[in-house]
């Protein structure tokens, strides 16, 4: 397994006596569900670009507390792309892949901005909440 992926997902993995890294399927599923929930919230808020951007920066700041670095973000795209392909099948066209890739690039940029903000301010404290849909309080 890639050294960078081990570092990125070390909280979701266990090490066997042989030294091999294996994913803890319960933790991995919980994290994947959370990621997809937040991705859905992000898509729900695409119309409000300033709110969408603020959410992503805040999420980047939160991930900085877990020592996630901006250079790790490109490793996530293949997993997201493959998940979309698996879920959508033939409906996942090249055009759709390109659109999702553009969205992912924007998300990565804003997450990296949040990580940089957190690291430059010396704040490595995790925030309490996750993303909140702007209409959650209505």
Automatic annotation (TrEMBL):
<keyword id="KW-0514">Muscle protein</keyword>
<comment type="similarity">
    <text>Belongs to the globin family.</text>
</comment>
<keyword id="KW-0349">Heme</keyword>
<keyword id="KW-0479">Metal-binding</keyword>
<keyword id="KW-0561">Oxygen transport</keyword>
<dbReference type="InterPro" id="IPR050532">
    <property type="entry name" value="Globin-like_OT"/>
</dbReference>
<dbReference type="InterPro" id="IPR012292">
    <property type="entry name" value="Globin/Proto"/>
</dbReference>
<dbReference type="InterPro" id="IPR000971">
    <property type="entry name" value="Globin"/>
</dbReference>
<dbReference type="GO" id="GO:0005344">
    <property type="term" value="F:oxygen carrier activity"/>
</dbReference>
<dbReference type="InterPro" id="IPR044399">
    <property type="entry name" value="Mb-like_M"/>
</dbReference>
<dbReference type="GO" id="GO:0046872">
    <property type="term" value="F:metal ion binding"/>
</dbReference>
<dbReference type="GO" id="GO:0020037">
    <property type="term" value="F:heme binding"/>
</dbReference>
<protein>
    <recommendedName>
        <fullName>Globin</fullName>
    </recommendedName>
</protein>
<dbReference type="Pfam" id="PF00042">
    <property type="entry name" value="Globin"/>
</dbReference>
<keyword id="KW-0408">Iron</keyword>
<feature type="domain" description="Globin">
    <location>
        <begin position="1"/>
        <end position="116"/>
    </location>
</feature>
<dbReference type="InterPro" id="IPR009050">
    <property type="entry name" value="Globin-like_sf"/>
</dbReference>
<dbReference type="GO" id="GO:0019825">
    <property type="term" value="F:oxygen binding"/>
</dbReference>
<keyword id="KW-0813">Transport</keyword>
């Amino acid at each position: 397994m890639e050294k960078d992926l081990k570092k990125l997902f070390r909280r979701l993995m266990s090490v066997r006596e042989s030294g091999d890294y294996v994913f803890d399927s319960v933790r991995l599923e919980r994290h994947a569900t959370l990621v997809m929930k937040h991705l859905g919230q992000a898509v729900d808020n695409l119309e409000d670009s300033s709110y969408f951007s603020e959410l992503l920066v805040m999420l980047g700041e939160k991930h900085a507390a877990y020592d996630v670095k901006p250079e790790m973000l490109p490793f996530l795209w293949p997993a997201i792309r493959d998940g979309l392909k698996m879920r959508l099948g033939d409906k996942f066209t090249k055009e759709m892949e390109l659109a999702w890739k553009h969205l992912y690039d924007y998300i990565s940029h804003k997450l990296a901005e949040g990580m940089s903000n957190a690291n430059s301010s010396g704040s490595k404290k995790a925030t309490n909440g996750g993303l909140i849909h702007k209409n959650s309080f209505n």
